[in-house]
Amino acid sequence: MARQPRLIVPEQPHHVIQRGNNRQVIFREEADYQRFLVWLKEGAKFYDVAIHSYVLMPNHLHLLATPSDATGLALMMQKVGRLYVPWFNHKYERSGGLFEGRFRTSLIDSDRYFMTCSRYIELNPVRAQLSVAPDDYPWSSYAHHAGIRTDTLVADHPLFWALGNTPFQREAAYIDMVRQGLSTEEVDFITIAILKNQPLGSLSFKTELEQKTQRQILPAKRGRPFNPPLPPLSAA
Questions:
Q1: How far is residue 57's CA from residue 67's CA, in Å, rounded to a whole number?
Q2: Does position 231 have pLDDT exceeding 60, yes or no?
Q3: Is the dihedral of CA 155, 125, 32, 30 positive or negative?
Q4: Smallest Cα–Cα separation from 83: which of 140, 39, 23, 139?
Q5: Helices (H), 96-229
């Protein structure tokens, strides 16, 4: 059975996750993270994909990205993989695939879940106990959003700009949001959506997506389809 194409909607943010094959390490040292980010920046610029948030973990990565068209996101990921995997294999004298099949995506309802998803991504190292606080971890976009350093890979989303009238106000508001953390329910909700390649949003958001994309988004109703009764047979 053919795989269903990814649900990609231009000008809409998508949560992306790419894992190492069999969850193997894909970044072994600082130079690996740096090299990947260089190629990610080049790919994002070439295919016109805005990267709003990211984190590179030892065996996987997360992005929050908005493509300008239906193909740019996949082409960007393919380009980065075709550059990084041979480089990584040559460096560590290995062969074969590095990533676990196709990357996963979850279309995001911006109004309800954009900022939550951004925090989910940047708090990943804390949940994985790789750092005590998000600013302790160097391979994410948190330092950019918190005003610690400027990251030219990051394209600030309008919802981030709406946090305040000045950079200081926006950074302070975002830091406060991150300090509040996420509930277990929020973490589970986002995790399930990305692992199942499902949109993350309200019922109305998913209903609108179905109408816009002509694809089934909501779960199919259970039970047999309703068949209206046949009219009685006329007497012979």
A1: 23
A2: no
A3: positive
A4: 39
A5: 110-122, 124-127, 142-145, 158-161, 167-180, 184-195, 203-213
Give the length of the chain: 236
Distance CA 35, CA 15 (A): 22
Query: What is the CA 178 to chain-centroid distance, rounded?
Result: 18
Share of the chain above pLDDT 70, in %: 91
Residue 197 CB burial class (10 angstroms; 0-12, 13-18, ≥19)? middle
The span from the CA of 8 to the CA of 144, in Å, is 26
How many CB atoms lie under 10 A from the CB of residue 31? 10
Strands 104-107 and 60-67: unpaired
Tokens of 168: 């200081």
Please report the DSSP string for 34-80 in residue order: HHHHHHHHHHHHHTTEEEEEEEE-SSEEEEEEEESSSSHHHHHHHHH
Buried b or exposed e, range 49-70, using 16+ CB within 10 angstroms: bbbbbbbbbbebbbbbbbbeee
Distance CA 228, CA 225 (A): 10
What tokens appear for 220 in the block? 């199919």
Q: Give the confidence band of 224 by pLDDT, cuts at 50, 70, 90.
A: low
What pTM value is reported for the model? 0.88
Domains belonging to the chain, first-starting first, are: 14-201 (3.30.70.1290)
